[in-house]
Fold this protein.
Amino acid sequence: MRIATSVLTMAFVCLTGMSFAQRGPKPPKVIYPEFAFDSLTAREQLKRGTGTIQGIAFTKEKNNMGFKAPLGSRIYATNTKIVLFPVTPYFEAWRELRRKKEGKKTYVYMSNEAYRFRLETTTDNYGNFTFTEMKPGRYFLQAIVGWSTTHATNVYTGSGYNGYGRTDYYTPQYYSVSHSDRIEEYVEIKESGEVVRVKLH
């Protein structure tokens, strides 16, 4: 049996010694599925098998409307952690709750016990990853891909005068903007020994 031992930790920043008017925005509300987690089901699905999941993880830059550009270049998830969860009734309840409730003001978390039942691996420099010794069943893959874009703005550096009058001079100044995308995908191993290939994006 292979169960990751680290437990999801949730940190909340407490503001003290400040007046109500000085406090920042109200922190997001955290909710959990109101569904009993069955550890025996999750434990059974994560027992060793003979199947393999081979995948490649990547994202794409977003267009001006905030959507991934279908024809954009791939941004590979380099040295990125891939998390695998067995798809159990509790997991499905969590996904449905997240679909309905998650937003800027609400986070939907699994219980610590449910989060323990997962497998993890890390991609290579080209976004490739593998999970071996998997049993037949449905699984859910998730990763957070960090990437950045470079932009330029013209910075005023001075003015000069010539026969045509005043001329203002500008120099390009470059800066980076960091981004992160949550990429997810279901995958199913239908029979023992099967090798399933998946694009996680």
Notes: Strands lie at 29-31, 51-60, 74-76, 81-86, 106-108, 119-122, 128-134, 137-162, 165-189, 195-200. The mean pLDDT is 86. DSSP finds three helices and ten strands in the chain. Residues 26-200 form a domain with the Immunoglobulin-like fold (CATH 2.60.40.10).
